[in-house]
Design brief:
By secondary structure, the chain is an alpha/beta fold. It has nine helices and five strands; from the N terminus they run βαβααααββαααβα. A five-stranded parallel sheet has the order 2-3-1-4-5, with helices on both faces.
Length: about 220
């Protein structure tokens, strides 16, 4: 792995100290941690690993599909952020929650403290259910949260800043908001330096798929 550069001026983007898994953690046959910046194509790369026979876990999906619908999570978030973040259907308005946490670091830290232990428990339970499998866990804040030691190897999906902004805008995120959200994460060059392997996603989907297949071949 390459040497990391000095810390950025944004404390929200500073990496945490590396965490050690408990000694009694039932480690799977192989577990890879996949991360990268916003709009870099993490989920696409994860899907390509699944095509190669890996089992996968998407931490964003855990939050979206498993945690945010829970009544106790809705109640806690509404108590902190106000009823405006709850839609008419009683579910959290993810866009409203995102706008709040990206605008206020204290609110972001509070939400992370609420959700991240539950996310980690969920993917650990998934892995424990099939210790013989080869796993890829997609963790957007893998490096920010110092989770490298949970994985046999780490992978960063990378692209140019122009591509990141273009892809986020294609999802409906305005340019200034997209840039602000990217700035809340560890700079992509530092993720690249911290990762064991890097997948470049500036070209076609076939190019990314070929890289994933080549990398996956190391463990198949």
């Amino acid at each position: 792995m390459g040497n990391q550069t000095s810390s950025t001026a944004n404390p929200a983007a500073a990496p945490a100290a590396r965490e050690m898994p408990p000694a009694d953690w039932p480690r799977p046959r192989l577990v890879l941690g996949l991360s990268g910046g916003m709009g870099c194509g993490k989920s696409t790369a994860t899907r390509f690993f699944a095509d190669c026979g890996f089992r996968t876990v998407d931490c964003d999906r855990i939050v979206r599909d498993e945690l945010l619908p829970r009544a106790e999570i809705v109640a806690a978030v509404a108590a902190r952020f106000g009823a405006a973040v709850v839609g008419a259907d009683g579910r959290l308005d993810r866009a409203a929650v995102a706008a709040r946490v990206f605008a206020d670091d204290a609110d972001r830290r509070w939400l992370e403290a609420l959700l991240h232990p539950l996310v980690r428990a969920s993917w650990r339970a998934a892995l424990a259910g099939d210790l013989a499998a080869r796993w890829v866990v997609e963790v957007p804040l893998l490096f920010e949260k110092g989770l490298e030691n949970w994985f046999d190897s780490t992978i960063c999906v990378a692209t140019s800043s122009a591509q990141q902004l273009s892809r986020l805008q294609a999802r409906g995120v305005p340019p200034d908001l997209a840039a602000a959200r990217i700035a809340k994460q560890l700079p992509l060059p530092r993720k690249i330096a911290a990762a064991d392997f890097v997948l470049l996603n500036d070209g076609s989907l076939d190019f990314l798929k070929e890289q994933v297949a080549s990398l996956a071949g190391r463990w198949l």
